[in-house]
Design brief:
single chain; about 500 residues; alpha/beta; Aldehyde Dehydrogenase, Chain A, domain 1; Aldehyde Dehydrogenase, Chain A, domain 2; 7-stranded mixed sheet; 6-stranded mixed sheet; 15 helices; globular
Length: about 500
């Protein structure tokens, strides 16, 4: 396909989606969404505010109380979610193109990763929802206690810009499978795919008002949902800083349930006895440079046993220098632009800080010359100590900090020396070391002899300031239901 021709013909949605209809923001406000590969305007989108949030919540509450979704048989909800997945698959090229234009990820990744995983997520929850049983307690004779999972009501999902479709679907699918109504607030950098799939949800048979999309600025639309007294739960993926706001909003409003998947500074530990140093080095490179480094669990700290550090680092640098950075609509491109000018400046500032604090820049380090968009070279630092800013703070860009460790014990200590605990990895041929690392690393996911592996059946989420609650797997449903106990006295 000629992706540039396809992009020129694409119909970009720009209105909010509330109660099954496309609507302008109540006050007519707009915000611009920019193509990060060119710096050019894609379109202007409705910038929703408090009045729009009120309308969306009212629609979501009304349909929830009506029961046309919340009391629908689980098997029928599942069939409609599967139909939703089928429609997204049918429109996969369009959705992939929207992702690439909006956030700059290579079209090859949008096609082969983002869209298929999004479709698979919706289909998996559709298939799972009628296979989850309620419980009967082991009571004394003469009584029966039933524990039933009931939907919470109105759930607001606030999602990030790095994987707009996929991160949204990790929320959408279990929220809807459980019988709730949903208000999706996409990031202001990436509203386009969310607005499109809302139409597909209605086409799939999901009733009007069950799936609403409220585009807008975080401090306005996001805050309005966080403080709303008729939103029963907020599920959020994004920075730890913003996650704290949602905790505050809950306390200041109705004590709504909050689940957070926040930042990360994941250690990727390579020991001298790793079974394949080439494979480990390749995984280390792509663990930070995939998706321009804009990945919450990116392996941004490479912790290497000192006896093989130079060898491993040389291999990682070699991989980095082969990565093709460029136009994300080119099928050969492997790394696209940073999402916007502000984020690019932030990444460049961190690179400067790394040099200022004494780290050794061994490759990259600059904005890509001769381009109109927001491109940054794959960047690697050596001689990093774990107290440096680039080792402690989440950069969310293609910047790798390399740290030496004497042995596994020191490597784990370095790995845990962080406010974050989203993910970690260890490479070793010694099963005892592997189990020791998996036990001792304080992270929600620990990979052994791989990086960033998993599927929809395994939960994802963090420890410490990386948040709480789990996306993916059946565990995600726990965030969107309440347990009701009904005690029946049978005694005569």
């Amino acid at each position: 396909m000629n992706w540039k021709n396809a992009a020129a013909k694409l119909d970009l949605r720009s209105l909010a989606f509330i109660d099954g209809k496309t609507v302008q923001a109540d006050d007519g406000s707009l915000f611009d969404t920019i193509n990060p590969a060119t710096g050019n305007l894609l379109t202007s989108v409705a910038a929703c505010g408090q009045r729009d949030a009120d309308l969306a919540v009212a629609a979501a509450r009304r349909v929830f109380e009506k029961g046309s979704w919340s009391r629908l048989a689980p098997a029928e909800r599942g069939r409609r979610l599967i139909r939703f997945a089928d429609l997204m698959e049918k429109h996969g090229d369009e959705l992939a193109l929207l992702e690439t234009l909006d956030v700059g990820k290579p079209i090859s990744d949008s096609l082969s990763v983002d869209v298929p995983l999004t479709v698979g997520c919706a289909r998996w929850y559709g298939e799972a929802v009628d296979k989850i049983y309620d419980e009967i307690a082991p009571t004394k004779p003469g009584a029966i206690a039933m524990m039933r999972r009931e939907p919470l009501g109105v759930v607001a999902a606030v999602v990030p810009w790095n994987f707009p479709l996929l991160m949204a679907m990790w929320k959408i699918a279990p929220v809807l499978a459980a019988g709730n109504s949903l208000i999706l607030k996409p990031a202001e950098q990436s509203p386009l795919s969310a607005l499109r799939i809302a139409e597909l949800a209605v086409e799939a048979g999901i009733p009007d008002g069950v799936f609403n999309v409220l585009p807008g600025l975080g401090p306005v639309a996001g805050r309005a949902l966080g403080l709303h007294h008729d939103v029963d739960a907020i599920t959020f993926t994004g920075s730890t800083k913003v996650g704290r706001y949602f905790m505050e909003y809950s306390g200041k409003s109705n004590l709504k349930r909050v689940s957070l998947e926040c930042g990360g500074k994941s250690p990727n530990i390579i020991l001298a006895d790793a079974p394949d140093l080439d494979a480990a080095a390749t995984a280390a490179a792509w663990g930070i440079f995939y998706n321009q480094g804009e990945v919450c669990n990116a392996g941004s700290r490479l912790v290497v046993e000192e006896s093989v550090k130079d060898e491993v680092l040389e291999k990682v640098i070699a991989v980095a220098r082969t990565i093709k950075v460029g136009d994300p609509l080119d099928a050969e491109t492997q790394m696209g632009p940073i999402v916007d000018e502000g984020q690019m400046s932030r990444v460049i500032d961190y690179i400067a800080k790394g040099t200022d604090e004494g780290a050794k820049l061994v490759t990259g380090g600059k904005a890509l010359p001769g381009t109109k968009g927001y491109f940054v070279e794959p960047t690697i630092f050596d001689d990093v100590t774990n107290d440096m800013t680039i080792a402690q703070e989440e950069i969310f860009g293609p910047v790798l900090a390399t740290i030496s460790a004497r042995d596994l014990g020191e490597a784990v200590k370095i790995g845990n020396d962080s406010v974050y605990g989203l993910a970690a990895a260890v490479w070793t041929a010694d099963i005892d070391k592997a189990f020791a690392a998996a036990r001792d690393l304080r992270a929600g996911v620990v990979w052994v002899n791989c990086f960033d592996h998993g599927d929809i059946s395994s939960p994802f989420g963090g420890f410490k300031q990386s948040g709480f609650g789990r996306d993916k797997s059946l565990h995600a449903l726990d965030k969107y239901v309440d347990i009701k106990t009904t005690w029946i006295n049978l005694a005569r």
